[in-house]
Amino acid sequence: MAEPSFTIEDFSHARGGLPLLVRARDPQVDLLDAFADVEPLVHDWLPRCAGILFRGFALGPAADSVERFRAFAAAFGHPLLSYEFGSTPRTNVTSGVYTSTEYPADQHIPLHNEQAYTRDWPMRIWFCCVQAAPVGGETPIADSRAIHRRIPADIRERFERRGLMYVRNYGNGLDVPWQKVFNTEDRATVEAYCRDHRILCDWKDDGELRTRQICQATARHPVTGEPVWFNQAHLFHVSNLPEEVRTALLDILDEEDLPRNVYHADGGPIDPADLAAIRAVLADETVLFPWETGDVMMLDNMLAAHARTPFSGPRKVVVAMAEPHSAD
Q1: In what order do the strands lie in the sheet containing 260-264?
Q2: Whole-angstrom distance, CA of residue 17 vs CA of residue 35
Q3: Domain pair 6-135+288-326 / 146-281, same fold
Q4: Residue 178 to residues 85, 187, 208, 278: CA-CA distances in angstroms?
Q5: pLDDT at residue 248, as a whole number
Q6: Which of 247, 290, 232 is nearest to 110 (CA)?
Q7: Which residues of 141-173 are buried (b: 16+ CB within 10 A; e: fewer)?
Q8: Which of 80, 316, 88, 79 is nearest to 180 (CA)?
Q9: In terms of C-beta density within 10 A (0-12 exposed, 13-18 middle, 19 or more buried), how is residue 104 classed?
Q10: Three-state DSSP class for residue 320
Q11: Distance between CA atoms of 11 and 148, rounded to whole angstroms?
Q12: CA of 242: how far to CAs of 104, 239, 245, 249, in Å?
């Protein structure tokens, strides 16, 4: 039997082998050409380790690397997803491939599972480091099963029992316009999408849109059956904003008009102390490693959360998603 085109390694500092490091034996080995070797490895290991980092593989000429990445992600057999009902600014690079969140380089993006603020999300997500930043710009990750285990039991029970309600106000120069979030200029199309996805929507007097959606705090993985912490309350809550930004916004807006906020599903406030405890667990479970140009990371989006650290200098990381799953 031919020797595989890669070696399997653990990052010595990583918890539970996250991410599993799959390194090319030869830098001339193309990741897409190695797919026949890679696919069974992913099938066996991804449910266990939650994330796999492919390093040292070629992705063809630089001009073709994004297309080769797209083809690699699509080769797993599920059509790549468009970025629907997004919460952050992104740019479509090619069919099914987007830039990572286009927040300013000095901002930290907390750990989150992609689209855990909705009832529909991708099961798989891929990242490709086209250009690693000279300073910072890592994509930290964490095991959502471990986070679930470590959230204090009283907080976990309270979040599960009371659920979450995400409130979003679009546009007005403060958040992504609804036209970009829903990829349409037509109000009727927005209303139909919201009906289909159990989202309450209201058109405000200024012509902008407000949505409310009741969502899960935790979930069970449909394949492994394991419970995971699966929400973005710590990210959407007003307490996530820097104090000066929060104060400035509340000076000019009623709380219900904040660009985004989150409550318990019954409309009651979330205790900031609960969110502080949750953030402490997330910080303690974070796995951090530097990108290398050409890296491709594949995550099970329910088993692994991801983030972004501040950076300086040029950085380009692109993202693809597939295999939609619904809480309903």
Answers
A1: 200-203, 209-215, 164-169, 260-264
A2: 22
A3: yes
A4: 9, 10, 8, 30
A5: 93
A6: 232
A7: bbbbbbbbbbbeeebbeebeebebbbbbbbbee
A8: 88
A9: exposed
A10: strand
A11: 23
A12: 14, 8, 5, 11
- Return the structure tokens found at 207: 């012509």
Helix (H, G, I), strand (E, B) or coil at 169: strand
What class is the 6-135+288-326 domain?
A: alpha beta
Which residue ranges make up each domain of the chain? 6-135+288-326, 146-281
Question: How many residues does this entry show for the chain?
Answer: 328
Structure tokens at 4: 């595989």
What confidence tier does 89 reach under pLDDT thresholds 50, 70, 90? Answer: low
Region 77-91 average pLDDT: 81
Q: For domain 146-281, give the CATH superfamily.
A: Clavaminate synthase-like (3.60.130.10)
Cα 275 from Cα 198, distance rounded (Å): 26
- Predicted confidence at residue 308, as pLDDT, reads 97
CB atoms under 10 Å from CB of 200, counted, come to 13
Return all residues near 99 (Cβ < 8 A) that are at least 6 apart: 90, 91, 93, 316, 317, 318, 319
The pLDDT tens digits of the residues spanning 137-193 come to: 999 999 999 999 999 999 999 999 999 999 999 988 788 899 989 989 999 999 999
User: For residues 273 and 40, what is the distance between their CA atoms, to the nearest angstrom?
Assistant: 44
The pTM of the full predicted model, rounded to 2 decimals, is 0.93
